[in-house]
Specification:
The chain is of the alpha+beta class and 156 residues long. 24% of the residues lie in helices and 44% in strands. It has a 6-stranded mixed sheet with strand order 2-1-6-5-4-3. The chain starts with 8 loop residues before the first helix and ends in a 7-residue tail after the last strand.
Amino acid sequence: MPNAGGLTDREAAIDAIIRFVCSLDEADGELCASSLTEDIIMDLTPFNKVGMDNEPVVGRAAVVERLMAAVGRPLDTTHMATNIRCTIDGDTAELRCTVLARHFRRGEGPSPEYQDYYLFGNKYKASVVREGDLWKVGRLLISPAWTQGNPDLMKV
């Protein structure tokens, strides 16, 4: 069944994660919100094992504010989603992918003179649902498989 833009259900479900990671790199709260259900649950507690202090974040507005305040606005980032596996069942999908996420302080990313960064190899597990013409993430678990660099960059 084609979705808005002529995407298949699988492509449209994957697009929810692509919108999500692009919103971080573009510091675009509206794009981030477009990728999430109203009652999204985002679980970042696996990052506690690398020295962070996270609780699950519930609700679209809270998730968008948290991400824009911690990643979108203060950092130069690139998030690349790959190894995407997506299983569709009617209006729901289960999605797994790997996201390579590189973080620099705002303004330092494009300059070769700044090499202070924090790099994550993350694993995403998402439950995605169809809402009208868009698929949106309803549950998201993000776990670091590995990290490299300066973790202090993530302290805002």
